Amino acid sequence: MAYRLQFFDEVIVDIQEAKNWYKEQKDGLEIKFSLAVEIALERITKFPTAYSIRYKNIRLIYTKTFPYVIHYYVDELHQLVVITAIVHRKRHPDTARKRV
């Protein structure tokens, strides 16, 4: 059974900022970015513990094609995956770590 997703409020901002930037670069690129994020999120819900813990129970998965990393933790009791950040790989690691 797939886990449910829950997002920190900041994640919505993370996604929107990235989509806006990609749209400015090339029309339609934001759609490809959104699809890459959706594919990664789908993998997380199907196999939430497949990715190793990196810090404070937080796991990381990298999107394909785009240089973004999704930070999340797993609540096995409630079959829930909580997304804490979706940030560019080159951003300072504390950007995501400060949220948890």
Relevant terms:
single chain, 100 residues, alpha+beta, YaeB-like fold, 5-stranded mixed beta sheet, 3 helices, 39% helix, globular
Architecture blueprint of SSEs:
Layout: E1 4-7, H1 9-25, H2 29-46, E2 53-55, E3 58-62, E4 68-75, E5 80-88, H3 94-97
Parallel strand pairs: 1-5
Antiparallel strand pairs: 2-3, 3-4, 4-5
Helix pairs in contact: 1-2
Question: Quick recap of the structure?
Answer:
With 100 residues, the chain is α+β, with helices and mostly antiparallel strands. Helix content is 39%, strand content 29%.
Describe, in plain words, how this protein is organized in 3D.
This protein is an alpha+beta fold and 100 residues long. It has one domain: RelE-like (YaeB-like fold). It is 39% helix and 29% strand. The protein contains 3 helices and 5 strands, in the order E-H-H-E-E-E-E-H. It has helices spanning 9-25, 29-46, 94-97; strands spanning 4-7, 53-55, 58-62, 68-75, 80-88. Strands 1-5-4-3-2 form a 5-stranded mixed beta sheet. A hairpin with a 2-residue loop joins strand 2 and strand 3. The longest helix has 18 residues, at 29-46. The protein is globular and about 40 Å long. The mean pLDDT is 92.
Summed over residues and divided by their number, the pLDDT gives a mean of: 92
Portion in beta strands: 25-35%
CATH architecture: 2-Layer Sandwich
The tally of helices reads 3
How many structural units, i.e. domains? 1
User: Cα-atom Rg, whole angstroms?
Assistant: 13 Å
So what's the overall shape? globular
Helical fraction equals 25-40%
**Poorly predicted runs of 5 or more residues:** none
Largest sheet: 5 strands, mixed
Distance between termini? 26 Å
Identify the CATH homologous superfamily. RelE-like
Name of the CATH class: Alpha Beta
Strand order of the largest sheet: 1-5-4-3-2
The helix-and-strand class reads alpha+beta
H/E topology pattern: EHHEEEEH
CATH fold field value: YaeB-like fold
Count the strands? 5
